[in-house]
Amino acid sequence: MKRSLTFISVFSALLLFAAACAKAPATDNTTSASSAGSAKGFYGVYEGVLPAADCPGIRTELTLNADGTFSKLSEYLERDSKYVDEGTFVLEEGLLTTTDKTGEVFYYQLQEGALQQLDMQGQPIEGEMASFYILKQK
Fold first, then answer.
1. What is d(CA 138, CA 93) in angstroms, rounded to the nearest whole number?
2. What is the reported pTM?
3. Is residue 120 a contact partner of residue 22, using CB atoms and an 8 Å limit?
4. Which of 100, 101, 93 has the alpha carbon at shortest distance from 122?
5. Less Cβ crowding at N or C end of the chain, within 10 Å?
6. How many Å apart are CA 131 and CA 98, to the nearest integer?
7. Contact at 8 Å (CB) between 48 and 57?
8. What pLDDT was estimated at residue 31?
9. How far apart are CA 101 and CA 91, in angstroms?
10. Using CA of residue 13, residue 87, residue 76, residue 96, what is the dihedral sign?
11. How many CB atoms within 10 Å of residue 19?
12. Looking at the domain that runs over 2-137, which CATH code has it been given?
């Protein structure tokens, strides 16, 4: 158990470091959640099982609220590990950027009824696992 917690702590620290070093794509056409206009249909709950390096997957439930806040429940399959992250998000030309209370940033591409998780630089994930980084709207 200590080894798992150490791995998760180190992995989280590396992700946080990578996120801090990454620059979000610059754009002047920022749409906050409260003024999303025609994109209002994207609010709600998205869920799926994302790939993981050391377990069968991470059941993820991402809730986007109309006030620009989010919560994300991450449950590691076949482990007794659940994490809840909360923070704010913005939508910029179909690019959804979440920032949790610790400053960790995740990027998602808004699709019809789904969100595709992007890499730490906001670019599409490539390779044979790319199709597994989808959260579907409930």
1. 22
2. 0.71
3. yes
4. 93
5. N
6. 21
7. no
8. 43
9. 18
10. negative
11. 19
12. 2.40.128.640
Residue with tokens 């180190």, as numbered in its chain: 10
Joined tokens for residue 78: 């076949």
CA distances from 74 to 46, 51, 82, 127 (A): 12, 12, 6, 23
8 Å CB contact between 137 and 114: yes
Average pLDDT for residues 84-90, to the nearest whole number? Answer: 98
Alpha-carbon distance of 101 to 133, in angstroms, equals 23
What pLDDT sits at residue 39? 56
In the chain, domain spans:
2-137
Q: Which amino acid is at 86?
A: E
Strand pairing category for 105-111 and 69-76: unpaired
> pLDDT of 18-68, one tens digit each?
334 444 443 333 444 433 334 568 999 999 999 998 999 999 999 999 999
List, in sequence order, every residue forming a beta bridge with 98; answer none if it has no partner: 89, 106
